[in-house]
DNA sequence: AATTATTTGTGACTTTTGGCACAACAATAA
DNA sequence: TTATTGTTGTGCCAAAAGTCACAAATAATT
């Protein structure tokens, strides 16, 4: 974790965040500058640990973070955080002290804005743009989670896997190992390997080492 | 649906709601009186239908409502609404027009406070107590749903069933048919019947018609 | 009391998912 | 190039969950 390693570019990213969220209140802009800190993390850094107290709201400015729950050997993806997105669970913690029930790990090198929870709480009623931001974060996360939930309940793993690949594909290619996919979908590696083979022989995919190509 | 059938008792319930949520702003109290309506529903009434536009935030003042998603023959419980609780999904709709992805059915005769979505949105930044209410609703619902999600991912059905019975038990007794339990847990009747039999022979339950007694 | 409808039980079978063991293959480093 | 490590493939079996068919038990209705 390198605090203000790239001071100038961090500043640009914060300004970008302020613009994208339409934070027009000058006072809030100042408070953000003053009271938040920006940290830089490398791939695979763990930035939130299960059972740890949450003291700051984390907002991704650059990069990507994977938030997941673990249960013994198994894991399941809760959500990804992309730029300009706040970690909904750390937002929750702003309104009631609590420990994290998830882990968050850096998926792509990233820059993160950290805002101590007490400010987040205060700003929520003080600044309209901030209020919109937290409300939208909750709304979008809640809707997303409901979808995940009912897919998990109703869809067979094979379908969930295929849909997941399509959603993750960067121009038809997904660069992930079977083990990684297993952890995101809450199952085991062998199961994924077999389902992928089946999808391949159904002509839906091409399998290569560490890489899956989706066919149209 | 009987509008203001019991005008006086409705008024008392609204006041009770106002007190419990510590809505101290007189202006908001007036707005609530003026702009909301109170409706009364009987068991099994459907109050929200899948794919319908959501025009009001629904808050339960008395009774109980079951909110669930359906997928063909199957269903899965999303949450129950108890007194003083708002339907989180209709809260979501207050901040972005959308259709419902769930159904809501009255589980116990109930009285419901209906607030048109535009007011909910406005009040969110206008009144602090209202802001707290919506924030708490989101926070609690989100945490609850995350738990449901990871239970669904990690726990075998047998455990989810038993935990569900314990949580629903009214002094160790749950009055539900196997079919109803199946619909709440997202599975089929036969599966539930068999699991219940197994739990009974393990000495965890006593089964009677339409009734399950949990043993300590 | 007889009929009807609802609820529960269960056998027999299939599909889906999971676990273990080990082989084959690919990538990387010494 | 060889050794090491990580990744994928797969046989074999077990457990969990789902489906179909039908019987038995219980409750509700006439």
TrEMBL record, chains A, B:
GO MF annotation list? DNA binding; DNA-binding transcription factor activity
Q: Listed GO cellular component terms?
A: cytosol
Q: What is this protein called in UniProt? A: HTH crp-type domain-containing protein
Q: Does the keyword Signal apply?
A: no
Source organism of this protein record? Aquimarina aggregata
Query: According to its UniProt record, what is one Pfam family this protein matches?
Result: HTH_Crp_2
Q: Which UniProt keywords apply?
A: DNA-binding, Transcription, Transcription regulation
Q: Which residues form the HTH crp-type domain?
A: 155-216
């Amino acid at each position: 974790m390198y605090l203000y390693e790239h001071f100038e570019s961090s500043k640009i990213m914060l300004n970008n965040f302020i613009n994208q969220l339409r934070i027009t209140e000058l006072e809030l802009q100042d408070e953000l500058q003053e009271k938040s800190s920006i940290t830089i993390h490398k791939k695979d850094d763990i930035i939130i640990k299960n059972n740890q107290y949450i003291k700051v709201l984390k907002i991704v400015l650059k990069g990507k973070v994977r938030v997941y729950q673990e249960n013994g050997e198994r894991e399941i993806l809760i959500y990804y955080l992309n730029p300009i997105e706040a970690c909904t669970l750390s937002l929750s913690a702003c309104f009631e002290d609590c420990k994290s029930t998830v882990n968050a790990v850096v998926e792509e090198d990233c820059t993160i804005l950290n805002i101590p929870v007490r400010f987040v709480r205060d700003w929520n009623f003080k600044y309209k743009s901030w209020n919109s931001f937290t409300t939208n974060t909750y709304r979008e996360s809640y809707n997303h989670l409901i979808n995940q939930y009912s897919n998990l309940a109703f869809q067979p793993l094979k379908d969930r896997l295929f849909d997941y690949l399509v959603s993750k594909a960067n121009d038809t290619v997904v660069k992930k190992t079977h083990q990684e996919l297993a952890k995101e979908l809450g199952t085991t590696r062998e199961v994924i390997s077999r389902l992928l083979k089946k999808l391949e022989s159904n002509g839906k995919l091409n399998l290569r080492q560490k890489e899956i190509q989706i066919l149209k």
